[in-house]
Amino acid sequence: MTDLVQTQRTGHVLVVTLNRPEARNALNPELIDGLSAVLRSADADPEVRVIVLAGAGPVFSAGLGPEGVHARRPVRRAGVGFTAKGWQPRSSRRSTARRSRAVPS
Fold this sequence. Notes:
The protein is an alpha+beta fold. The protein has 2 helices and 5 strands.
């Protein structure tokens, strides 16, 4: 596990903390990879029922950092995404754009 993502477990609750306060917890490829690994591990553990996502320092997260924008591997290909069924590989999710309909005015 990376120092950029810290975890603390109490019972069925897993607290996941983004630990990059000097950059306002901005997402970069290393932080995203660490977060993905922690979430995959939590998903595989039947004892984890609640995940609390927190940020170290005065802010939760500034969003995507410049390292993520300029990374060779786009951040959007981190490999997981959240759906109503939980964390799943991107390839197993259907596009919501195909299911959307125009709203009559």
